């Protein structure tokens, strides 16, 4: 089932030139990045790093919106280490995999999982990627 938008909240507009060895800029000027091939040592970032930052930021925001039975709040010092792996699939094409390691200091494992599982059901990145790529969720 395709999730459709009933009410727009925000639209990001970017222009990329040169592909993985080019540049990317946002229409508002807030983003202006050089792009480099992963592992090339080039001066720019790459799409996998951008996905890792975007997904982890969105996921952390989603955790703050999760309503748990015991009203658990996300600690101010919460963080997410995101790993996005680019690899070759069995059919010879490319594939992505994501691992999010969520650090929620001061919470029990049960509280952590309640927030993580709730965020995975709420986060737009999770909803878009789940069932399409491998996603591993872990707590620290």
Describe the main β-sheet briefly: 3 strands, antiparallel
Main β-sheet, spatial strand arrangement: 1-2-3
Query: How confident is the prediction overall: mean pLDDT?
Result: 96
**Which class do the helix and strand fractions yield?**
alpha+beta
Q: What overall form do the CA principal axes indicate?
A: globular
The total beta strand count reads: 6
Strand content: 25-35%
CATH-defined fold name of the largest domain: GMP Synthetase, Chain A, domain 3
Distance between the first and last residues' Cα: 33 Å
Shape-level CATH architecture of the largest domain: 2-Layer Sandwich
User: What is the fourth-level CATH superfamily of the largest domain?
Assistant: K homology (KH) domain
Number of separate structural domains = 2
- Write down the CATH class of the largest domain: Alpha Beta
Count of alpha/pi helices = 3
Q: Which segments are poorly predicted (pLDDT under 50) over 5 or more consecutive residues?
A: none
Helix fraction, binned, reads 25-40%
Radius of gyration: 17 Å
User: What is the H-and-E element order?
Assistant: EEEHEEHHE
Protein name: Peroxiredoxin
Family: Belongs to the OsmC/Ohr family.
InterPro entries: KH_dom-like_a/b, OHR, OsmC/Ohr_fam, OsmC/Ohrsf
Pfam families: OsmC (PF02566)
